[in-house]
Write a structure and sequence with these properties.
Blueprint (H helix, E strand, L loop, with lengths): L5 H12 L3 H5 L3 H15 L4 H14 L6
């Protein structure tokens, strides 16, 4: 997937609802776990929305190294 592709848009949208899911859709398992755990921890101090935002941006801007 290239930056701005429809796959990245979908990944960004699903990351908005469940942080890390967009990265998982892109096949980035470790990044998905990282985003999910960090956002979960951030919600403990009421800053989880930052994790959601970061996860969406990361999924939208990701460029495949195979391109």
């Amino acid at each position: 997937m290239s930056q701005g592709s429809s796959g990245n848009v979908i990944a960004a949208l699903v990351s908005f609802f469940i942080p890390g899911l967009g990265q998982l859709v892109q096949g980035r398992v470790l990044a998905a776990i990282f985003h999910f755990v960090i956002t979960s921890l951030l919600w403990l101090i009421l800053l989880g929305w930052l994790g959601h935002l970061f996860s969406c941006i990361d999924a939208a801007r990701w460029k495949s190294p195979h391109r």
